[in-house]
Fold 1-phosphatidylinositol 4-kinase.
Amino acid sequence: MRLFKMAVAIDQHHGFKPFSRSQRCKLQSFGHLDHKILELTHTSFSHSFEQVFEADNIHRSFSTPCLPLSTLSGEDLSTSNPRIELVSGSGAPVHALVVEVAIAMASGVHPKPLPSGLGGAYVFCNKSGNNIAVAKPVDEEPLALNNPKGLGGQKLGQPGLKSSIRIGEMGVRELAAYLLDYGGFAGVPPTALVKFCHASFFPTDAGVSATGPNLPKLASLQRFIGHGFDAGELGPSFFSVASVHQIGILDIRLLNLDRHAGNMLVKKHDHNSYVAGVAADLVPIDHGFCLPEWLDDPYFEWLHWPQASTAFSGSELEYISKLDPFKDADILRTKVPSLRESSIRVLIVCTIFLKQAAAAGLCLADIGQMMTREFCDGEEIQSELETICSQVKANVPLVSNDENNSKGEIGISGISFGDLSQGQWKLFLENFNKLLFAVFEDKKCKN
């Protein structure tokens, strides 16, 4: 009977309608958020969290991106009747995922907390006990108000684990990565932003009632990927060149600050075995540290893998050549409107850089190295990409841009494009393309 209480409606515009009722560890730094997007009432949820869930095939990533962002003030939804609503996300795989979770909740299945990671994350199973989805609430993100791992207390919008990414904005980045992974090229699992009402998400101690009125939880929802290992447990000799290249291309486009072995899952073979010499495919997850607000220092676990030094295949070069950074930008502005323009401009710069570098014959390792900072005598040195952008930006007449500055760029320590007006941005891109062409022509001559 409970299934009837969980009925959901889908329309072609808004999805589900509301119910009628390696080297150095990059995780030492931290990120930010948009206070205009996240006008949420900060209820006093408990910070304690002592449940430990033991299960096979739960990924061990230390990254735990979480979610954003629609204004829900004024809503008064009871957690006594479990419900889920799609906030952002589209396509049949996403709709199927949300329906499966809705059915599971209606069947009495409770999300179970994952012990790994720095933020709150919950796994959903179906009635058969198979894991189907992982949810990461925005208010349980690392450093966020209701973080269950002892790393909380700060408001959404403050500096987070990465200074170029704000607390509470990791979920929109997970969605952006899925939207930009055209045709499942890199294999990013179906991802959506949702809001939940479920007693399991609301602590009953500290005076908070699990059955009383509560604001819904905003969370990212991602298809659970069955796997036996992550990349760190097998080592690069097991992985296919194509799989490494596909993930690397995505990471470069999105300037991934946290591509470590734990967030590349090794796909299960039908025979459930892993034999040296039989190449396995990888599935990339946890993209909350992508698309920073300025050129930050990425971390690419694959950078020194032998596959990264192999030349791109013809099909990979064709895929890269067809990428349109301005079309990508429009998609994000339309489908992920809470993502800051400064992050979208980083996407454009990195995609242009990738396209020119690949056309010039550089391999994945060469490109990744040009984007990565180096340490010399204890000091961090700008990457080649940052140096190029610095030179170009220095020749663009700068004028204070009140519209961008009002959005609150916090603690910038890299090259930002958010302070450029539209005219300045256009001039920057023109000069950037010219200088890149000269740089890669010079590299060709030296080679």
Observations:
- Residues 49 and 260 are 26 Å apart (CA to CA).
- Confidence is low (pLDDT under 50) at residues 1-79, 204-213, 400-407.
